[in-house]
Structure to design on (131 residues):
């Protein structure tokens, strides 16, 4: 049986804050928002047309709250692929997304690092043809 990565958990301080940014500003799709034992919810989102989902996980307790925005030790830990870098870069800037750098060309494609409002570092990238 083939396997695929279904979801990756992303710690957020609050479900609604995560939804406001990812769905409200970036245009990700809300896949599911199911109440569990209060105050937990099963909140799955995905970029338009994306297969792998993000599970927004409300941080519970001091250890998890301290990890918000640093789940990957300060490295870029999330990679948003696009088929039109310039279009999506401009839309993200217009939505108030903070980019750490100007777009740059690498052997694998065009890329720029950005942060979500919780401190998580992402790449916006468009792969070169054939990559």
């Amino acid at each position: 049986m083939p396997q695929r990565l279904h979801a990756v958990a992303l710690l957020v301080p609050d479900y609604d804050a995560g939804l406001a940014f990812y769905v409200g500003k970036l245009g990700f799709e809300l896949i599911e928002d199911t109440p569990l034992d209060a105050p937990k919810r099963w909140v799955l989102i995905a970029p338009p047309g994306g297969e792998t989902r993000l599970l927004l996980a409300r941080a519970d307790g001091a250890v998890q709250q301290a990890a918000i925005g640093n789940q990957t030790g300060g490295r870029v830990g999330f990679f948003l692929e696009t088929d039109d870098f310039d279009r999506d870069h401009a839309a993200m800037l217009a939505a108030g997304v903070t980019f750490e750098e100007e777009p740059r060309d690498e052997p694998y494609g065009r890329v720029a690092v950005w942060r979500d409002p919780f401190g998580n570092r992402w790449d916006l990238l468009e792969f070169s043809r054939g990559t």
